[in-house]
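Protocol step 4 of 6.
Sequence for NAD(P)H-binding protein (Streptosporangium jomthongense) entered exactly as in the expression construct, tag removed. Do not edit the line below.
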Amino acid sequence: MTILVTGATGNIGRHVVRGLVGAGQRVRAMVRDPRAARTRLPEGVELVHGDFARPDTWPRALKAVERVYLFPYAYQEPRPAGSGFTEEAVAAGVRRFVVHSAAAAGFAPSDDPSALGRHLEEERRAHRGLETAVEATGREWTHVRPGLLAARALGWAGSIRAERTVREPYPASGYPLVHEADVAEVAVAALLTDEHLGAAYTVTGPAKVTQAEQVSAIGAAIGARVRFEELTLSQARVRWLAEGCPPEMADWLVELLAAAVEGTGALAPTGTYEEITGRPPRTFARWARDHAADFTGEAA
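Step 5 output, structure tokens:
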């Protein structure tokens, strides 16, 4: 059996590939640049050039494939009905899809006019649209819906390496950030067993971790004191815009942080990972240790 992993060099996709290889599976990775991907993926993985925006690359990627880990290509330019990757996959003989979705796909439709409300509704529609397209194929499916990834903290890597400082608003804001390896383990279980067919799993970390706590955990992981310097909202917005962040995104980022100062905003912790694996989910401290080299420069 050949399993195709799309998005294979991403935060989660890399762990899906490793998990499948560790289970003795034949894995094909669809990537834009096979030469660059070779250094990021295990030996024995078949690398095939493929791009969701280029249908001419799909047949080779899908040849003799039975199961697909499907990256959310719903954000690609819309295509005429019947010309999408899922239809091509079914025509090629794919029998099972495990969809890399998002927690927002499980949210109720909303007409919240705030910047964050509009963003979440756009995300919900895109990811739920892909889920629905897969369900409509009549093939086996499982949807894996990660919450906010701990990997968001990699955005601080540059300032931590250079100054041992993180500058953000709302130090008490936080979500139940999930380790990408936890999401991948759920996806691998869905690819390899029949126990999760027809399920939609929202996967989060075990508990809320504030921004200040994240910075502290990263400092502990690298053996250095990392300062959290609180910015005002206006200071944060000016910095984000200067870094190239679109104004609409800056607006919803502020609202995302503000929504989780008290509580965890729209996303409470779930017990999904433990229910599926029998183990507690990895903590943010574990994630920080696993990524320590990213914050010291050793990973470069």
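Step 6, annotate. The CA atoms of residues 57 and 231 lie 46 Å apart.
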